[in-house]
Amino acid sequence: MNYLRRLQYERPWLYWVGFAVALWLAFQLVLLVVGLVLGSFGLPSWAPIVVVLGVLVVIARRQQRTR
């Protein structure tokens, strides 16, 4: 963790590129898992994206209510 903090201060562009790539990979992994689960139901190909975005909206709303 200390390494990431130091990297953020010394080379911020590298830190943010790595952070963006990690977010993209995590989103792709979540879409893959949701696609595998929903694939057996014969839903359209856009259904996993809707499910993932819906879950993210629900999480964001719950976090706003607690403040």
| Helix percent band | over 70%
Termini Cα gap: 27 Å
How large is the share of residues in beta strands? Answer: under 5%
Encode the helix/strand succession as letters: HHH
Shape: flat
| Rg computed from alpha carbons, rounded to a whole number of angstroms | 17 Å
Number of extended strands: 0
Can you tell me the number of structural domains? 1
Kindly state the mean pLDDT as a whole number? 91
Could you say which structural class the secondary elements and strand pairing correspond to?
A: mainly alpha
Q: Can you count the helices?
A: 3
Secondary structure blueprint with pairings:
Elements: H1 2-10, H2 12-39, H3 47-65
Task: Summarize this structure as a short list of keywords or feature phrases.
67 residues, mainly alpha, 3 helices, 0% strand
